[in-house]
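Issue 218. Parser rejects a valid record. Input:
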Amino acid sequence: MRVKRLDRVGMWTCEEIVGLLDRYIVGQADAKRAVAIALRNRWRRMQLPEEMRQEVVPNNIILIGPTGVGKTEIARRLSQIAEIPFLKVEATKFTEKGYVGRDVDAMVRDLVENGISLVRKRAEKKVSEAIDAAVEELLLDTLFPPLAGMEDDAERRARWERSRAKIGQQLAEGTLEGREVTVASEETKVPIANIFTSAGEEFDASFGESLKELFPRKKTEKKVTVARARKLLREQEAQRRLDMDQIVAEAVELTENGGIIFLDEIDKIAGKSSHGSGPDVSREGVQRDLLPIVEGTAVSTKYGVVKTDHILFMAAGAFHMSKPSDLIPELQGRFPIRVELDSLGAEDFVRILRDTESSLVQQYTALLRVDGCGLEFQPDALEEIARLAAELNKRMENIGARRLQTLMAQLLDDLLFRVPAEDQGDVTIDAAFVNRTLAEIIRDEDLSRYIL
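Output the parser choked on:
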């Protein structure tokens, strides 16, 4: 059976996928090209006959480059564009099997949870209007309960309907959000299950259901605000209307055929530990635990067995102190595509500030507009901010585009503090303003007091 949701990927050619990534990430054409091919191949595989489809495995990718150049952002935006399950995890979080800590199987379980959340949101969206209408009706019944015995009293019923309509209008306008109401909620306490989950082990779903039968749902009433009640009632109403078995089945299939796991800092588990440096547990041991997951295995989860054969793995690392060839040979062979990302310079930073969707400039402009302050950046201001970011990356550790965030925070610190206490009016940021505001910081040798 073909995963219907991957049909969305088929809407775009590889060039169009790169174009979508260009809206958020500057440069890195080689990396965008590689991930676009990988994404399109996921859709192509689903169009093949069943026998051939099972034989086609994904070409996993290693992204090599310093921090702040877009490695994680490329993978994250790719998953958002395609609406497929995505998980970012740091390779250093895991320990070799047999030691206390997280084992590598946990990443697959987390990916499935993300897939279920994704599919559930889609399902909720389809019935969102019906859920909202039902919730409003339930809130209205709580605020203005129906009256019995009005069948033969037309005048009384008319007054009740007018009053109820008035309350309904106030509810729709949001003027009753702070009023307290009493709502019923259902809770299931299964203490035995906590023994399994706290130990990091998954238990069989049917066993979990059996436990729930031993500990029936307990109805309780609580006083909450209308705003909080709306969230609680919406959750309950969605639970009643959604078929969770179908959602889980679709999510597992989508995860197996479309999921992406992004292994960050994989360079830090390359090679063997020495003199206590690096992870506490054998780096090579973690690599060997990763190998079957990347190769393709079956992982037991509380939703059943999940196969990893067709999950796409993208690894990333700076590889300053090591190189991809320091990984164990078996793991190297499972990452056939390797792409080096370029360091970012002043020209790239200008484009990041000016051209990307939801850039820092757009974010701060929108934030200050909330307080009635208009903010405008002149082109020379963006060039000066970019120049300073590039200079600081040379003087200090190179953190790439993340330097822009620290500079922008310092640049607008005083303005963000004073607005709206003072009637600031509109503010124009030019190169002179940037130099005047950041001059002391840039001159100070101990930049750590101001900027990461």
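Fixed in the parser; the record now loads. The CA atoms of residues 335 and 393 lie 30 Å apart.
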